[in-house]
């Protein structure tokens, strides 16, 4: 029997049969995040039959069932979940190697895909893009507006490089795949008609809004729940007379003078300078935290590091003071 460095040719053949294909492991990881073969196929630019075939080969390689049908989607078996969890370490290492290679080249260039939800898309992102295009014209920047849950899945599936999300969603299931970096702490504020009885107050407690008619953006379910919970803790249920599907409609209802609302301050930069509104901080503070999520190890890539530096430079321009009052000082209620 032939030997090479003490390894038989027969054992080498067995070893190569046992080696798992990284591309197939990546498809399984995407399936764990996206939940359907169709979505995986779309994410990796393959046909559904091609994805199904590759996953079937992976099951043959591992000798076990890795996923099963569940309603309209699929669900990983315990063996599949374990394989995805263990392979995350492999992908982390691959990302680190790719980052090291990119760092060795030194150039801040290439494509960077960023996603963010509405209020970040209208505040941080334009400023970040302006800085990056000025400092690093070789970057090919791409942006997609996504809600936090979609954005997080896109980052885990490597459909975007950086996802700006908030703490309205649970990221526990994806924590092994992603690195989370704190970006910003946003606070909620009441939006009142300019002639409202509380418009001139420096801050108000949410209990002071117990007798008001409310408008709420029902599409922002997490914030709706947070606001309703705060009201209940203050001893009342908000009287919601306007159930809206977006922030523009919610503010439009406040403009009538018939209702009030409570929204995150970052989304209210325009409202704070609109003479139709008074934007008043809520005390005690109601907080949401914003993070940037990325695949483990990628933050060392020069292009990704450049985006993070730009964020670090831009975010302080939007920072609220501890009590929100200073950051909303231009609200028309103080000019009246």
TrEMBL record:
Q: Which Pfam families match?
A: HTH_1, LysR_substrate
Q: Which Gene Ontology molecular function entries are recorded, alphabetically?
A: DNA binding; DNA-binding transcription factor activity
Q: Give the domain of life.
A: Bacteria
Gene3D superfamilies membership: Periplasmic binding protein-like II (3.40.190.10), Winged helix-like DNA-binding domain superfamily/Winged helix DNA-binding domain (1.10.10.10)
Would you tell me the protein name for this molecule? Answer: LysR family transcriptional regulator
The entry sums up its family as follows: Belongs to the LysR transcriptional regulatory family.
Domain HTH lysR-type intervals = 20-77
| Keyword set, alphabetical order | DNA-binding, Transcription, Transcription regulation
**One GO term of the cellular component aspect?**
cytosol
Any keyword Transcription?
yes
